[in-house]
Amino acid sequence: ILNVEQSPQSLHVQEGDSTNFTCSFPSSNFYALHWYRWETAKSPEALFVMTLNGDEKKKGRISATLNTKEGYSYLYIKGSQPEDSATYLCAFYAGNQFYFGTGTSLTVIP
Amino acid sequence: GAGVSQSPSNKVTEKGKDVELRCDPISGHTALYWYRQSLGQGLEFLIYFQGNSAPDKSGLPSDRFSAERTGGSVSTLTIQRTQQEDSAVYLCASSLAPGLSSYEQYFGPGTRLTVT
Lengths: 110, 116
Fold this sequence. Notes:
The complex is a heterodimer.
Chain A: E1 5-7, E2 10-14, E3 19-24, E4 32-38, E5 45-50, E6 56-59, E7 62-67, E8 72-77, E9 86-93, E10 98-100, E11 104-109
Parallel strand pairs in A: 2-11
Antiparallel strand pairs in A: 1-3, 3-8, 4-5, 4-9, 6-7, 7-8, 9-10, 9-11
Chain B: E1 5-7, E2 10-13, E3 19-24, E4 31-37, E5 43-50, E6 65-69, E7 75-79, E8 88-95, E9 106-107, E10 111-115
Protein backbone atom coordinates (compact mmCIF):
# COMPACT_ATOMS: atom_id res chain seq x y z
CA ILE A 1 0.00 0.00 0.00
CA LEU A 2 1.44 3.38 -1.02
CA ASN A 3 1.38 6.19 1.51
CA VAL A 4 -0.21 9.46 0.42
CA GLU A 5 -0.31 12.09 3.13
CA GLN A 6 -2.06 15.41 3.26
CA SER A 7 -1.50 18.23 5.68
CA PRO A 8 -2.92 19.88 7.53
CA GLN A 9 -5.86 17.62 8.30
CA SER A 10 -8.11 20.65 8.77
CA LEU A 11 -7.86 24.37 8.39
CA HIS A 12 -10.01 27.33 9.37
CA VAL A 13 -9.30 30.63 7.65
CA GLN A 14 -10.99 34.01 7.46
CA GLU A 15 -12.65 35.11 4.26
CA GLY A 16 -10.07 36.86 2.10
CA ASP A 17 -7.08 34.96 3.51
CA SER A 18 -4.88 32.99 1.19
CA THR A 19 -4.01 29.45 2.16
CA ASN A 20 -2.17 26.39 0.98
CA PHE A 21 -1.93 22.72 1.79
CA THR A 22 0.32 19.83 0.95
CA CYS A 23 0.08 16.39 -0.58
CA SER A 24 3.07 14.07 -0.13
CA PHE A 25 3.46 10.92 -2.18
CA PRO A 26 6.13 8.39 -3.17
CA SER A 27 8.74 9.87 -5.52
CA SER A 28 9.10 6.61 -7.44
CA ASN A 29 6.74 5.03 -9.97
CA PHE A 30 4.96 8.33 -10.57
CA TYR A 31 2.29 8.52 -13.25
CA ALA A 32 0.01 11.36 -12.19
CA LEU A 33 -1.28 13.36 -9.29
CA HIS A 34 -4.92 14.42 -9.15
CA TRP A 35 -6.57 17.03 -6.93
CA TYR A 36 -10.26 16.77 -6.09
CA ARG A 37 -12.60 19.03 -4.20
CA TRP A 38 -15.32 17.37 -2.12
CA GLU A 39 -18.10 19.54 -0.79
CA THR A 40 -20.42 18.19 1.87
CA ALA A 41 -23.36 16.23 0.40
CA LYS A 42 -21.84 16.37 -3.08
CA SER A 43 -19.54 14.16 -5.16
CA PRO A 44 -15.79 14.74 -5.35
CA GLU A 45 -15.01 16.93 -8.34
CA ALA A 46 -11.72 17.01 -10.23
CA LEU A 47 -9.68 20.19 -9.92
CA PHE A 48 -6.39 19.34 -11.54
CA VAL A 49 -4.58 16.45 -13.19
CA MET A 50 -0.82 16.87 -13.03
CA THR A 51 1.62 14.64 -14.82
CA LEU A 52 4.95 16.42 -15.28
CA ASN A 53 7.51 17.54 -12.75
CA GLY A 54 7.28 21.30 -12.40
CA ASP A 55 3.66 21.40 -13.59
CA GLU A 56 1.71 24.41 -12.42
CA LYS A 57 -2.03 24.50 -12.95
CA LYS A 58 -4.50 27.27 -12.24
CA LYS A 59 -8.27 27.53 -12.15
CA GLY A 60 -9.55 30.90 -10.99
CA ARG A 61 -8.23 31.55 -7.49
CA ILE A 62 -6.97 27.99 -7.07
CA SER A 63 -3.59 26.80 -8.28
CA ALA A 64 -1.37 23.79 -7.78
CA THR A 65 2.28 22.90 -8.22
CA LEU A 66 3.99 19.55 -8.57
CA ASN A 67 7.42 18.26 -7.59
CA THR A 68 7.73 14.62 -8.55
CA LYS A 69 11.41 14.34 -7.60
CA GLU A 70 10.74 15.13 -3.96
CA GLY A 71 7.20 13.77 -3.94
CA TYR A 72 4.93 16.66 -3.09
CA SER A 73 2.24 18.89 -4.52
CA TYR A 74 0.90 22.14 -3.11
CA LEU A 75 -2.61 23.48 -3.57
CA TYR A 76 -3.03 27.23 -3.13
CA ILE A 77 -6.22 29.22 -2.70
CA LYS A 78 -5.94 32.97 -3.06
CA GLY A 79 -8.47 35.19 -1.30
CA SER A 80 -10.52 32.34 0.22
CA GLN A 81 -14.29 32.61 -0.01
CA PRO A 82 -16.92 30.75 2.04
CA GLU A 83 -17.82 28.72 -1.06
CA ASP A 84 -14.27 27.31 -1.03
CA SER A 85 -15.17 25.39 2.14
CA ALA A 86 -14.73 21.72 1.27
CA THR A 87 -12.40 18.79 1.69
CA TYR A 88 -9.53 18.80 -0.79
CA LEU A 89 -8.27 15.36 -1.76
CA CYS A 90 -5.17 14.40 -3.65
CA ALA A 91 -4.81 11.07 -5.46
CA PHE A 92 -1.54 9.49 -6.57
CA TYR A 93 -1.76 7.30 -9.63
CA ALA A 94 0.91 4.59 -9.68
CA GLY A 95 -0.04 3.00 -12.99
CA ASN A 96 -2.44 0.47 -11.58
CA GLN A 97 -4.76 2.27 -9.20
CA PHE A 98 -5.30 5.56 -7.42
CA TYR A 99 -4.17 6.09 -3.85
CA PHE A 100 -6.03 8.85 -2.08
CA GLY A 101 -4.90 10.96 0.84
CA THR A 102 -7.26 11.54 3.77
CA GLY A 103 -7.88 15.10 2.65
CA THR A 104 -7.59 18.60 4.05
CA SER A 105 -10.85 19.99 5.36
CA LEU A 106 -11.03 23.73 4.71
CA THR A 107 -13.52 26.00 6.44
CA VAL A 108 -13.66 29.62 5.35
CA ILE A 109 -15.22 31.84 7.98
CA PRO A 110 -17.20 34.82 6.61
CA GLY B 1 -25.05 15.53 -19.71
CA ALA B 2 -25.82 12.82 -17.21
CA GLY B 3 -23.19 12.17 -14.61
CA VAL B 4 -22.41 9.05 -12.62
CA SER B 5 -25.42 7.87 -10.68
CA GLN B 6 -25.59 5.53 -7.74
CA SER B 7 -28.43 3.83 -5.96
CA PRO B 8 -29.64 3.70 -3.33
CA SER B 9 -28.43 6.95 -1.83
CA ASN B 10 -28.87 5.56 1.67
CA LYS B 11 -29.16 2.01 2.88
CA VAL B 12 -29.72 0.80 6.41
CA THR B 13 -29.41 -2.93 6.88
CA GLU B 14 -29.17 -5.41 9.69
CA LYS B 15 -25.93 -7.19 10.43
CA GLY B 16 -25.72 -10.43 8.49
CA LYS B 17 -27.89 -9.35 5.56
CA ASP B 18 -26.64 -9.01 2.00
CA VAL B 19 -26.73 -5.67 0.18
CA GLU B 20 -26.33 -4.62 -3.43
CA LEU B 21 -25.13 -1.19 -4.46
CA ARG B 22 -25.52 0.01 -8.02
CA CYS B 23 -23.46 2.36 -10.16
CA ASP B 24 -24.35 3.78 -13.58
CA PRO B 25 -21.23 5.32 -15.10
CA ILE B 26 -21.11 8.08 -17.66
CA SER B 27 -21.90 6.72 -21.11
CA GLY B 28 -18.71 5.93 -23.02
CA HIS B 29 -16.50 5.73 -19.94
CA THR B 30 -14.68 2.43 -20.07
CA ALA B 31 -13.03 2.59 -16.65
CA LEU B 32 -15.06 2.20 -13.46
CA TYR B 33 -13.84 2.34 -9.87
CA TRP B 34 -15.40 1.56 -6.50
CA TYR B 35 -14.14 3.24 -3.33
CA ARG B 36 -15.37 3.52 0.22
CA GLN B 37 -14.87 6.08 2.91
CA SER B 38 -15.29 4.94 6.47
CA LEU B 39 -15.75 7.51 9.21
CA GLY B 40 -12.56 9.49 9.72
CA GLN B 41 -10.71 7.62 6.98
CA GLY B 42 -9.56 8.50 3.48
CA LEU B 43 -10.95 7.08 0.28
CA GLU B 44 -10.13 3.39 0.11
CA PHE B 45 -9.82 1.72 -3.28
CA LEU B 46 -11.95 -1.41 -3.64
CA ILE B 47 -12.08 -2.56 -7.27
CA TYR B 48 -11.35 -1.30 -10.77
CA PHE B 49 -12.94 -2.37 -14.06
CA GLN B 50 -11.16 -1.59 -17.31
CA GLY B 51 -13.05 -2.33 -20.50
CA ASN B 52 -13.34 -6.09 -21.00
CA SER B 53 -10.25 -6.93 -18.96
CA ALA B 54 -10.38 -8.87 -15.72
CA PRO B 55 -11.06 -6.44 -12.88
CA ASP B 56 -8.42 -5.39 -10.38
CA LYS B 57 -9.91 -6.71 -7.15
CA SER B 58 -6.86 -6.06 -5.01
CA GLY B 59 -8.66 -3.58 -2.78
CA LEU B 60 -11.59 -5.75 -1.76
CA PRO B 61 -11.31 -6.16 2.02
CA SER B 62 -12.72 -9.68 2.25
CA ASP B 63 -14.39 -12.43 0.25
CA ARG B 64 -17.74 -11.07 1.41
CA PHE B 65 -17.26 -8.30 -1.14
CA SER B 66 -17.76 -8.86 -4.86
CA ALA B 67 -18.53 -6.69 -7.86
CA GLU B 68 -19.52 -7.16 -11.42
CA ARG B 69 -19.94 -4.96 -14.42
CA THR B 70 -22.43 -6.03 -17.02
CA GLY B 71 -22.08 -5.07 -20.67
CA GLY B 72 -19.24 -2.71 -19.86
CA SER B 73 -21.66 -0.30 -18.25
CA VAL B 74 -23.65 -0.73 -15.02
CA SER B 75 -21.79 -2.13 -12.03
CA THR B 76 -23.07 -3.77 -8.88
CA LEU B 77 -21.11 -4.05 -5.65
CA THR B 78 -22.40 -6.83 -3.41
CA ILE B 79 -21.60 -7.21 0.26
CA GLN B 80 -22.64 -10.51 1.78
CA ARG B 81 -23.27 -11.07 5.48
CA THR B 82 -22.75 -7.41 6.29
CA GLN B 83 -20.82 -6.43 9.39
CA GLN B 84 -20.89 -3.18 11.32
CA GLU B 85 -17.42 -2.31 10.05
CA ASP B 86 -18.86 -2.26 6.53
CA SER B 87 -20.70 0.95 7.40
CA ALA B 88 -19.28 3.63 5.11
CA VAL B 89 -19.98 5.79 2.10
CA TYR B 90 -19.43 3.77 -1.06
CA LEU B 91 -18.42 5.86 -4.04
CA CYS B 92 -18.30 4.89 -7.68
CA ALA B 93 -16.28 6.77 -10.29
CA SER B 94 -15.80 6.43 -14.02
CA SER B 95 -13.27 7.81 -16.46
CA LEU B 96 -12.83 8.10 -20.20
CA ALA B 97 -9.85 5.93 -20.91
CA PRO B 98 -8.85 2.86 -18.99
CA GLY B 99 -5.70 3.32 -17.03
CA LEU B 100 -4.75 6.61 -18.63
CA SER B 101 -3.56 8.74 -15.79
CA SER B 102 -4.40 12.02 -17.49
CA TYR B 103 -8.12 11.41 -17.35
CA GLU B 104 -9.84 12.55 -14.20
CA GLN B 105 -12.44 10.45 -12.49
CA TYR B 106 -16.06 11.51 -12.32
CA PHE B 107 -17.65 10.50 -9.06
CA GLY B 108 -21.19 9.53 -8.25
CA PRO B 109 -23.00 10.91 -5.19
CA GLY B 110 -22.28 7.79 -3.18
CA THR B 111 -24.32 5.31 -1.19
CA ARG B 112 -24.27 5.70 2.56
CA LEU B 113 -24.45 2.23 4.07
CA THR B 114 -25.29 1.78 7.73
CA VAL B 115 -25.16 -1.69 9.24
CA THR B 116 -27.03 -1.95 12.53
